[in-house]
Amino acid sequence: MSNLSAINTDRLPKHIAIIMDGNGRWAKQRGKFRVFGHERGTRSVREITECCAEIGIENLTLYAFSTENWNRPKIEVQTLMKLLISSLKKEINTLIDNDIKLSAIGNLDALPKKVFSELNDVIEKTKSNSRMTLTLALSYGSRDEIVSAFKAISTKVKNNIISPEKIDEYIINEHLYTRNLPDVDLLIRTSGEQRISNFLLWQIAYAELYFTDVLWPDFGKEDLYEAIVNYQNRERRFGKTSEQLT
Ligand code: FPP
């Protein structure tokens, strides 16, 4: 187990993204319904958000609901949406007290009206906060995001706003939901699964990937410290050689 003192605060990841997985299994292990795991998962969301702000992480992005998650049983989708509304209502003051700005990425129009309006309310009330940006990926799919960017760029090409020769990584980035965020430095996935599941495919081009067997409802501060220490012990070469870096 790592603790806070093991972290080098001069070399923090600027952007941590997390695939919060294992809520269903956590509940099943206890003979409970899956939604019980999601409920407990909201505790980890709170703990990890506060912990990131305390350490000095500038951006935290959480995969809360994917475009594919709409295919889950209706009751589970409804419970997740209710949990979102109650968490937003419950946590708004914590976000304000900790100077955290809330943001959201994804096909937000697909969200139920109540979720959409509660979300916008919290986004509006925290928009001037600057210590950390907490981004919730909701009804999010990376391919869906890339398709939207293609459509927006090609419309601009058609209307002579952008010439095709001018399209570069910067322009593509500017048309993604994450246009205001830096690239992901550290991607964490809990619960032992080792896949990306259509999350931030463009933005993780040079991210360090960290997989842990801990299920999301059990993922706490010490687990986050361990992931950051592990990240800090890696050499990020961005395509260069070790010698070039020194
Ligand atoms: C994956 O576990 C988790 C989700 C699909 C939802 C994550 C949602 C929360 C933690 C609660 C609400 C979020 C916020 C931001 C308040 P799984 O159900 O796929 O677990 P399994 O793989 O064990 O079945």
Describe the structure using short key phrases.
alpha/beta, binds farnesyl diphosphate, 6 strands, 15% strand, globular
Characterization of this structure:
The chain is an alpha/beta fold and 246 residues long. It has one domain (12-141, 183-234): Undecaprenyl pyrophosphate synthetase. The protein has helices spanning 23-29, 34-55, 74-97, 113-125, 142-158, 169-174, 221-232, 242-245; strands at residues 15-19, 59-66, 100-105, 132-140, 186-189, 208-211. Strand 3, helix 4 and strand 4 form a beta-alpha-beta unit. Helix 1 crosses helix 2 (34-55), helix 2 packs parallel to helix 3 (74-97) and helix 3 runs parallel beside helix 4. The longest helix has 24 residues, at 74-97. The mean pLDDT is 96. The structure holds farnesyl diphosphate. Residues 20-25, 34, 38, 41-42, 45, 62, 64, 69, 83-84, 87, 136, 191, 216 line the site of farnesyl diphosphate (FPP).
Gist?
The chain has 8 helices and 6 strands. With 246 residues, it is an alpha/beta fold. The longest helix is centred in the middle third of the chain and has 24 residues, at 74-97.
